[in-house]
Amino acid sequence: MKELEQGLLMQPWAWLQLAENSLMVKAYITKQGYALLVSDLQQVWHEEVDASVVSQRAKELNKRLTAPPAAFLCHLDDLLRPLLKDTTFPSEAMFTCDHVAEALILRVRSELSGLPFYWNFHCIPASPSLVSQHLVRPLMGMSLALQCQVRELATLLRMKDLEIQDYQESGAVLSRDRLKTEPFEENSFLEQFMVEKLPEACSVGNGRPFVTNLQSLYMAVTRQEIQVRQEHLGTEDLQPSSSASPPGAENQLVNQPKELISSAPSLPVPEKESTGTSSSRQRPQLSKVKRKKLRGLFN
Question: Is the pTM of this model over 0.85?
Answer without folding.
Answer: no
